[in-house]
């Protein structure tokens, strides 16, 4: 815990030991049942109403930009046993029945232990629950098929970049060829993928931004999100930015909440990184391969129609604000 004293000095209490016996952790569902109105929360890639939960903390990956393992959860994945998760999911079904359309496992990398993920999925199949989770883009076909057969609908995957040098530089631990094969298998199995990308990581250039846009269009996830590299204090990326003088002096977000680039490079400005985000969204979504499936969803699901129209309105508002901010500079 960190706090200011009466003189304005900052104090830090000693760090508490990480909890390793996650089966001893109480279920979050009774708290959700009392305090959470699931109808009030929407996210573009999940079926609503949905419920998000963690079955563990920590991520073994060493990505230099990622805030959570470097500052909060650590690199050891400490998780509940499949049996404990199965009991909790049975409790969830008893509370909400069929009113929850999807459960999302928000563990940093839910699929890092494939045997555990499959064991949990068997409980979810028995309970007839639809679910999604975070995953790395390297799962093999047989594992994907098993998870799909047990109710998996969608995977949220951090691809980050379409340039291998950038991926190696941030210690992503994934090869583009592997990610391509992963996406090929997901398409074959009918598993939807929400792809996450980051522009502005070290070694980024106008050329590598183009590579990332082309890669996203090639592997064709169902939906994407495009973030700007954020050098959070406590991460390796932050230390690199300090050492190399990459900071622009801008904040990570504008007052309105839209993301800004706090990084720039000798051959790439912060505004060019921000422009790349807009360009990537436009080029990915304004393609028949992207438009046709989304329109199809809207036609068969009235709720999806409302959500997609809302998202379109938010995107146009984002573009308008970006252009206004650029003009003011």
Strand sequence of the main sheet, in spatial order? 3-6-7-8-9-10
End-to-end C-alpha gap: 39 Å
Q: Within the CATH hierarchy, at the fold level, what is the topology?
A: TIM Barrel
Under CATH at level 1, the class stands as Alpha Beta
Helix content: 40-55%
Mean pLDDT: 92
Report the C-alpha radius of gyration, rounded.
21 Å
Structural class: alpha/beta
Query: CATH superfamily assignment?
Result: Aldolase class I
Key attributes of the depicted protein:
single chain, 329 residues, alpha/beta, TIM Barrel, six-stranded parallel sheet, two-stranded antiparallel ribbon, 12 helices, 14% strand, globular
Description:
- By secondary structure, the chain is α/β, with parallel strands linked by helices.
- The chain has one domain: TIM Barrel.
- It has helices at residues 29-35, 67-73, 82-96, 114-126, 141-149, 164-169, 176-189, 206-219, 236-244, 270-285, 288-300, 302-328, and strands at residues 2-4, 10-12, 50-53, 56-57, 78-79, 102-105, 131-135, 152-160, 192-199, 223-228.
- Strands 3-6-7-8-9-10 form a six-stranded parallel sheet.
- α3 (82-96) runs parallel beside α4 and α11 packs across α12 (302-328).
- It is globular, with a radius of gyration of 21 Å.
